[in-house]
Every structure is written in structure tokens, then in C-alpha cells.
Amino acid sequence: MKTGVAYFHNRDVRHFERDLDDIIAHGCNFVVHCYSEIDMAWYNQAVEKIVRMTKDRGLTVYLDPWGLGGVFGGETFSKFVGEHLEARQIARDGTSLPAACPNQPAFRELIELWVQRAADLGADVVLWDEPHFYYDFVHTSSWENWACRCPACRDLFRKETGSDIPDQLTPEVETFRQRCMLKFLDQNCAQARGLGMKNCVCLLPDETGSLGKVAGTSPWHRIVRLPDVDIFGTDPYWALFGGEVDEFVGRYCARVKDLCATYKKEAQIWILAFLITEGREEEVGRAVEIARSHGIKNIAAWAYRGNHAIDIKCTDPEKVWEILGEAFRKAQAGSRGPQG
Ligand SMILES: [Zn+2]
User: Fold this and answer.
1) How many Å apart are CA 281 and CA 316, to the nearest integer?
2) From the CA of 99, how far away is ligand 1's center (Å)?
3) Which of 100, 108, 120, 264 is deepest in the core (most CB within 10 A)?
4) Could you tell me the distance, in angstroms and rounded to a whole number, from the CA of residue 314 to the centre of ligand 1?
């Protein structure tokens, strides 16, 4: 049984030593460390120590290109998009967006550097977290203004189809965007695999809806079957999507489990441990139980200690962390069988 949490809370290694004790005491055997553009610029030595400390205690280390280029999930800013105005995504109406385009060579170089650094830092697994074309999660009315129509995308579309990229999101543009994201992931995973790391892909729980459409996400089976993808999962954050924990988490556990069984990949489910409001804390433990009941053996929570250090924390982060820890310890004990 694999149970883990995401960690981005600070780069003070003395502080992390205490947090690591706390993470282990809460039943985790892996940590997803965020390695952002800010880390790449200023905190390589600290991240190297943090990764080594984690591995020295016997835990598996995932590294997450957190918010890299604004293309992956993460509450951080991209340095790259300020330095490479030419490599930004361009919206349908011509607006330059605060996100890099996966088809731009300069961004490809940043990704390649990140993967090489992740290998040098000693990562076991790379978490490709919610790769997407740009969208504003809150203002859904802006989703009609899709990306990307940058020069690189225009050239590629013309090369592949023989015509100019339309300004409407036609089925042809939709499949083009999906192909671009799929190729982007495939290249990233191949490089990581070549450097001895495993690949884990996490997608938003919206395979065919408007969110998946604006993000340019391919039908999930095409991603799961990529040769270098080892682990596939989703983050069914029921409370954020207005869902009920049993139904919402259960539905996505079944879908991920089924797909991973078909393509012989490892299934992973993320548990919501941020923005949990007062009175709903027990739902976090329930979500872990639901994942276990579906036979999911890789369960991760976002994030450490109820996300206590950031504005999008739980109302009572300590309570959520205790409930999560209890559920994780129970999962670990259960996987060891009745003989303990
Ligand atoms: Zn583009």
C-alpha cells in the first residue's frame, strides 16, 4: 500500500526534518515534493537535501513540476512566461496569456532541463500534474477564448492539416489540441524514463466535459496507454466540484481502476485535504476508505497538514491531518494483513 502527501511548505531543511517525522507518523510512505521554477532558480541545494532526507528515511520521492510555465497545476508563478514573451500561449482573440505553449521550443528546453534536474536530485517518480492549455478555473465564461494560436501552433496545424487554424473550437481544432498535449506528455515521460524515473500522470476529474475540453485533455485511455506512463490517476475533489464524497470519489476510483487494469498500469487516487470546511473533515477519511474499497493501492493527499501554510487551507487543518493520518495508518495496517 502506498500512501503519501504533497509537500511545498518551506525550504528550511531544519523545519523539514520535523515535518518529515510528522509525515511518517501520519502513515505516509511517499512524499510528492514540489520542484517549481522558483526552486530551479533559488532552492536547488535545499531541495537536494530535502529529497535526500526523505529517501534516507525509506520514503519514495515524487517530484512535481509545480506550476511550471503555467502548464501544470500549482499555486505559484512562472518566471519563464515573463522572460519568454514569444513562447506564451495566445488565446483565440489574440491575447497573450500567462502560460507557456507546449509547442514552443523554448518551453521544451525548460522541461528538458527540469527532467534532467529531477533525475540529478534523485527523484524516483515524476508527477505530471494536470497538464493543460490555459484556462481561468474561476471565470468559466472566459473558456470560449481558448488557446493556443501562437505561431508555433499555427505552423504545426497547417503542417498537419494543410489549412489555417480556425478561430472556432471545431472538432478538428479539438483533436489537434489533444494531439499536442499527448505528444508533450509522451516526450516528457520518455525523457524521464530514459533517466531512470517512473512517470505518474494526474488529470482533473473531467474526461469529457467542458473543463477537459478547454484544457485539451485527450480521452483518458490514450494517456494511460502511453508506453512510458507507469501510474495514472485523478484528483476527484468532491467538495470543489459540488459532488458528494461517496458518489464522486467512488465513480472516479472505478473509472481509474478499470482503465489501469486494461492497460496494466498502477492506479492512483488523490484525496482532497485543502479547502475542507468545518464539519466536513470526516469526509477526508471516508474518501480514503472509498479508494481502498475500490482496490486502489496508491493514495495521495493534497497536501501536508491540511495545506496549513497557504490561503487555500482547510478551516481546521490539524483536524483534517489527524483524520487523514488515521486513515493512512489504517490502510497501511490493512495491507500488512491480519498477522500485522
Ligand atoms: Zn501555441
Assistant:
1) 8
2) 10
3) 100
4) 36
Cα of 164 vs its chain's centroid, Å = 33
* Distance (Å) from CA 145 to ligand 1 centroid: 14
Are 97 and 91 contacting, i.e. CB atoms less than 8 angstroms apart? yes
3 state SS of 267: strand
Predicted confidence (pLDDT) per residue in 64-104, tens digit: 999 999 999 999 999 999 999 999 999 999 999 999 999 99
Tell me how far the alpha carbon of residue 143 lies from the centroid of ligand 1, in angstroms: 16
Report the pLDDT value the prediction gives residue 129, as an integer from 0 to 100: 98
From ligand 1's centre to the CA of 147, what distance in Å? Answer: 7
Q: Identify the structural domains of the chain with CATH numbers, from first to last.
A: 2-75+101-139+179-335 (3.20.20.80)
Ligand 1 centroid, distance to 191 Cα (angstroms)? 22
In our burial notation (b when 16+ CB lie closer than 10 A, e otherwise), range 225-241 reads ebebbbbbbbbbbbbbe
> 150 by DSSP, 3-state: which?
coil
How many C-beta atoms surround the C-beta of residue 26 within 10 A? 20
pLDDT tens string 33-53? 999 999 999 999 999 999 999
**Cα 200 to middle of ligand 1, angstroms:** 25
Distance 166 CA to ligand 1 centre (A): 14
Provide the pLDDT for residue 62. Answer: 98
